[in-house]
Design goal:
heterodimer; A: 306 residues; alpha+beta; Peroxisomal Thiolase, Chain A, domain 1; nine-stranded mixed beta sheet; two-stranded antiparallel ribbon; 11 helices; 13 strands; 35% helix; B: 79 residues; mainly alpha; Non-ribosomal Peptide Synthetase Peptidyl Carrier Protein, Chain A; 3 helices; globular
């Protein structure tokens, strides 16, 4: 049974708060907070690439981890069409020759990466999953949509998944995609992020609780026994809505969106990395990861402390 | 119960407010709806009036007020 060995994260130094962003966009900082739950977000330096972000996050989780036999890098905001960042991330980490795969599916990239890693680890050995995004640029590109520009930030998260049990063992994962909604949340080769907010909310508020309940049901785990839910940090109101839908106290949904905004594929692993530092898990405790995003893609992953 | 009354009851139920909004009143400005409550309201409208509201019709402007919601439902009934 594959297990999560370690987590890592990297957040850029520059902080952009709602007051400054509100001035730029011509909107009320209080409105930003009320509609998203975000108070501030991090902005990558101009010379910080997605590769840089991924490498920094990966380094922080590889410190005591075994060398990976496979590397998966999720990013919806690479600097070029191809090659994606994965091969360069592998090279910069000193793993040239190790197979490296790109997952350019934005918000659900880390979840899909972890699910694939758990199934590929028996074949390749430890798998490094890194997710890195520079969303701030595309989110605020012209023509500006304030509802989009307020949400996103930059950052990277990572984890190492090993083929052996121990630590957080991955019990199961469920992945879904439906390209009928591929136009509802998208980033083209030029221009800003485009989002039909109502459609995204409509589907996320239904599909996230459904897939969480689905993975719990498949493993005979009831939602009220799950120690922590680690979701893609899309919007605080959405996280609260999912908590209500599955009848779990919002406090069990770890959230750092107020400090980092929505960092797309990176957000779930950034949250997991922070949460794990202070989590006091006991043997048998379960943790549920879940994400919904552009595609649409969505899924959930269930893990249990050994 | 008229169509407008049914819409008003749905809005009150979703918003958990007891006071009925004015038909021309902005439901967003008055705090009856936000983005998330809008999707809940759309689901209830679908159930109450037996129609499917496509994602492409989900713009806040279309559901801004009781009057606009009624206008939208009338337009759907005529197609």
């Amino acid at each position: 049974m594959a297990s999560i060995h370690s987590f890592g994260r990297y957040l850029p130094e520059q902080v952009l708060d709602n007051r400054e962003l509100g001035r730029t966009l011509g909107c009320d900082p209080e409105w930003i907070l009320q509609s998203s739950g975000i108070e501030e977000r991090r902005i990558a330096a101009p010379d910080e690439t997605v590769v840089n972000l991924a490498v920094r996050a990966a380094q922080s989780c590889l410190q005591q981890a075994p060398a990976p036999g496979l590397i998966i890098v999720a990013s919806g905001t690479p600097e070029r069409r191809f090659p994606g960042p994965a091969a360069e991330v592998a090279h910069r980490l000193g793993f040239a020759g190790v197979p490296a795969i790109d997952l350019p599916i934005a918000s659900t990239g880390a979840l899909f990466g972890m699910s694939l890693a758990s199934q590929l680890a028996p074949l390749y050995g430890p798998v490094l999953v890194a997710a890195a995004e520079k969303m701030s640029g595309p989110a605020s590109a012209a023509p500006v949509d304030k509802n989009v520009a307020i949400i996103f930030g930059d950052g990277a998260g990572a984890c190492v998944i090993q083929p052996e049990p121990g630590g957080l063992e991955i019990l199961d994962s469920l992945l879904h995609s439906d390209g009928a909604y591929s136009e509802e949340l998208r980033l083209g080769f030029a221009g800003p992020v485009r989002m039909n907010g109502m459609a995204v909310i409509r589907h996320a508020t239904r599909k996230l609780p459904e897939v969480i309940n689905e993975v719990l049901r498949r493993n005979q785990v009831s939602s009220d026994t799950v120690s922590a839910f680690l979701l893609h940090q899309a919007n605080r109101n959405l996280i609260d809505r999912v908590a209500r839908a599955i009848e779990v106290a919002p406090a069990r949904f770890y959230s750092n969106i107020s400090r980092y905004g929505n960092t797309s594929s990176a957000s779930m692993l950034i949250a997991a990395s922070e949460w794990h530092e202070s989590a006091q898990l006991e043997s048998g405790d379960t943790v549920c990861f879940a994400a919904f995003g552009a595609g649409f893609h969505w899924g959930a992953l269930l893990a249990r402390q050994s | 119960m008229s169509k407008q009354d049914k819409i008003t009851e749905i809005v009150k139920r979703i918003s958990k407010k007891t006071a009925a909004p004015d038909p021309e009143e902005s439901l967003f400005d008055s705090g009856y709806l936000d983005s998330f409550a809008l999707t809940d309201m759309v689901t209830e409208l679908e159930h109450e009036f037996g129609l499917t509201i496509p994602d492409t019709d989900l713009s806040p402007r279309r559901f801004e007020s009781i009057a606009r919601i009624e206008h939208y439902l009338d337009s759907r009934a005529n197609t």
